[in-house]
Design goal:
Oligomer: single chain
Largest sheet: 6 strands, mixed
CATH architecture: Distorted Sandwich
Shape: globular
Bound molecules: 2-acetamido-2-deoxy-beta-D-glucopyranose
Number of domains: 1
Low-confidence stretches: 1-26, 316-376
Mean pLDDT: 83
Structural class: mainly beta
CATH class: Mainly Beta
């Protein structure tokens, strides 16, 4: 009897050990992987805690979450991620370095899926990288700071310049680079990958991987505008908001989301309504073409009923010069905001005879698919 009980209890503890091994996945989460990144060779053992690039960020003091606490693990100076102005760049996003082109320096070697090169996490279900499927993607973003030293970069220095709303579904993920990106300073720029997953994909958490980057092929020198905090303005059926509120959006250069940490947050949304990189926060899919100092004629203070901003037509810069003239003529111009789903077309009517400021009126607002995740 005694022997039998000892035997069965050791069987149970063996089963428990096996179970705890199984529920603690070796491969999970996701990160941006490139030799230009900070923390390229950081493993689970490098820090007293698991600070691999894929480890999620939450409830941390600033020093622990900013650049993933990888500033002491810089890339080689020759490793720079290139951003061709007006072109497309391809990033690799995976749950483990071994699932990327850089497997050679991964502890576990090459774990890529020969049958599917786009497999983000070979051998694991998509929920391990926080999505229940292709309908549960919330997008990710690349931000840029026009500074050469990562240690000089402050949270407000990052501007989101590209979004992929179907991130993190494929290992090879394309990012469109705005055509008017100006050149970086002589030492290059500093970039970062940002991602917050769906509320159905697991607990609330942020992802941030910094990397060295450089803009090539610039045709414009107009700097980026000062980045503002994004606002939740899209249709949000999960929270019973049936219509988007375009006047409530932040337009132009926007900061990345800093959320759910102990310090340095710029977003204060609750755990079930995370800020996400898609139309819900006016992050159109692809290049963020309206982030420059001359992108808009006017951007009113956002509010649910605010007037819509007026994009400057940079190809015909004379369009808006009549606003302060003495003539009583009226001009109408229309612009399309954003380049992704659900563009908002605004028409401005400028009547200058009174000398008053021009009034912008949204005559047509065809933001049909500005519903964020639901449009996917
Ligand atoms: C990362 O590790 C690989 C392999 O050991 C090495 O060749 C490379 O120089 C390392 N990179 C950095 C940035 O430390
Ligand atoms: C997002 O990445 C996927 C996979 O690389 C690509 O097919 C898609 O065109 C990208 N979307 C944008 C808007 O760049
Ligand atoms: C960045 O790219 C520009 C344009 O190609 C080039 O002149 C410059 O040397 C590059 N800087 C770095 C640090 O790679
Ligand atoms: C407007 O934006 C604020 C800030 O993100 C948000 O809290 C509020 O719910 C939004 N209101 C509407 C009607 O979109």
């Amino acid at each position: 009897m005694t022997t039998g009980m000892a035997w069965s209890s050791s069987l149970i503890s063996a089963a428990l050990v096996a179970a705890s091994y199984v529920v603690q996945p070796v491969f999970a989460h996701s990160a941006f992987w490139h030799p230009s990144m900070y923390g390229f060779n950081v493993t689970a053992q490098t820090f007293p805690y698991d600070n691999r690039p894929v480890a999620p960020i939450k409830n941390m003091p600033f020093s622990k979450w900013w650049f993933h606490n990888h500033l002491d693990y810089p890339p080689h100076p020759s490793d720079v991620f290139l951003l061709p102005a007006g072109g497309t760049t391809t990033a690799e996003i995976a749950c483990n370095k071994g699932a990327t082109s850089y497997f050679a320096s991964s502890e576990g070697g090459d774990i890529r899926n020969p049958a599917n090169p786009n497999d983000v996490c070979p051998g694991s279900k998509s929920i391990t990288y926080h999505t229940n499927g292709i309908d549960d993607l919330e997008g990710c973003a690349l931000g840029i700071a026009y500074k050469s030293e990562a240690r000089d970069v402050q949270p407000g220095d990052f501007t989101v310049f590209s979004v992929n709303q179907t991130c993190v579904w494929t290992r090879f993920t394309e990012f469109k680079v705005p055509e008017r990106m100006p050149p970086c300073p002589p030492g290059g720029c500093v970039c970062a990958f940002f991602w917050i997953h769906s509320p159905f994909g697991g607990g609330e958490e942020n992802y941030m991987n910094g990397f060295k980057c450089n803009v090539t092929g610039s045709t414009s020198t107009v700097p980026l505008a000062t980045a503002k905090v994004p606002r939740r303005c899209g249709e949000d059926k999960r929270n019973n908001k049936l219509f988007s509120a375009p006047g409530n959006c932040t337009y132009g250069a926007k900061q990345p989301f800093y959320w759910f940490n102990l310090e340095g947050n710029n977003m204060f949304e609750g755990p079930f309504s995370p800020p996400v990189y898609n139309d819900l926060y006016n992050f159109r899919d692809g290049a963020q073409d309206d982030i420059f100092q001359d992108s808009y004629v006017t951007i009113p203070e956002p509010a649910p009923n605010a007037a819509l901003p007026v994009l400057k037509d940079v190809s015909t810069p004379q369009t808006q010069t009549q606003t302060q003239s003495e003539s009583s003529s009226s001009t109408s111009t229309s612009s399309t905001i954003g380049n992704g789903g659900g563009p908002i077309t605004v028409t401005i009517t400028v009547t200058a005879s009174t000398g008053a400021l021009p009034s912008a009126t949204a005559v047509s607002s065809s933001s049909s698919s500005s519903g964020g995740a639901s449009s996917w």
